[in-house]
Amino acid sequence: MFSVSNDEAKAAHKVTLIGSALDATLGGLKIFVGYWGNSSALIADGIHSLSDLLSDVLVLVATHFGRQQADAKHPYGHARFETLATFILGGLLIAVAGALAYQAIKELVTADFNALLPASETLIIAALSIAGKEWIYHYTMRVARAIRSDLLKANAWHSRSDALSSVVVFIGIGGALMGWPWLDQVAALVVAFMVAHIGASLAWNSIEELVDTALPEQDVQKIHKLALSVQEVKNVHGLRTRKMGAAILLDIHLQVDQCISVSEGHHIGVCVARQLRNHFTDIGDITFHIDSEYDQEIPSTANLLPLRTQIIQELTLAWAELLHWQDIARLRLHYLNNKIHLDICLRAQAAKVDPLQLRQALQGKLWFADLTLEYLVEELASSPNKV
Predict the structure, then answer these.
(1) pTM greater than the 0.70 cutoff
(2) Among 50, 116, 165, 290, whose CB has the most other CB atoms within 10 angstroms?
């Protein structure tokens, strides 16, 4: 059902490994220079970069498992390994943000700003971080869109948050060097709030997927209209949507003409599925249910109305004196409005059977609604006898 190529997994691993190398280099450099150059904001930014490194490891593990093919135990695939990893990544960012905010507030209250002016070199490192993280953001996002990976997109935004936080750090250090030393700690606090916001957003989006939240309303309405655009579909109901990683899963009920064959109904469903896939390329699985009536307003009668085997037994007994069962060429049962409509095709030798007597013999049946007779004789087939 879900197709996952090795090339996609390799592309995800490649960009993540490159990002890991960059995060390790920038993180260590910012912490070292920040400590040496008296910049709390740069140290906070360095810790943020190292959290990116941890998220890179998480991405590598999650994409390894999440991009595996579906199997007997996981018939819908393993994409939610990536979703779970995205949730963990969001929680990690929130935790990092809390630690950064605590440290920044503590230093705002206790620090001697006159003795702790940041060195000018810290400004250069902040600028280098902006350039490096913005580059890896664009690279990662390009790959994420190509392979449709929400986890990789989340990691790209993690890198973008590091770039933005470096911008704030750059401004904070510059302000401190210009005579506002407290601005460095304020910048660290702003970074913490930015990281927390991104982490909360990632975690919430993952929770929505894990609890099978529906697609946005505009997408649901579009799916509804596309299904109705197939002329043979009379009504659409019971539409349910959810996501499994990058893939869309949907269930849909299609109301069709009451008297068509099972195979025609199935073919209509296939045509609807093709129509939806042409407009939503991320659809991974469609389960369609063919209805002969709008059954959401009708109580379930599955345990009340008899099935074909019992119907044949009752008809054989009721018509024992009127009709030989071998004279029936075809029997169709239509379950409509809590009753059963009989559509019977008789062989030529039964042409003299009185349809009124057949109908009267069934009047005591609670399940009986109507009887339509047709004949194999060519001249009679065009004029069905309905009683």
Answers:
(1) no
(2) 165
Structure confidence at residue 222 (pLDDT): 95
Strands 339-346 and 368-375: parallel
- Return the CATH number of 6-210, one of 3.40.50.300, 3.30.420.180, 1.25.40.340, 1.20.1510.10: 1.20.1510.10
Q: How far apart are CA 376 and CA 380, in angstroms?
A: 7
Say yes or no to pLDDT of 383 above 60.
Answer: no
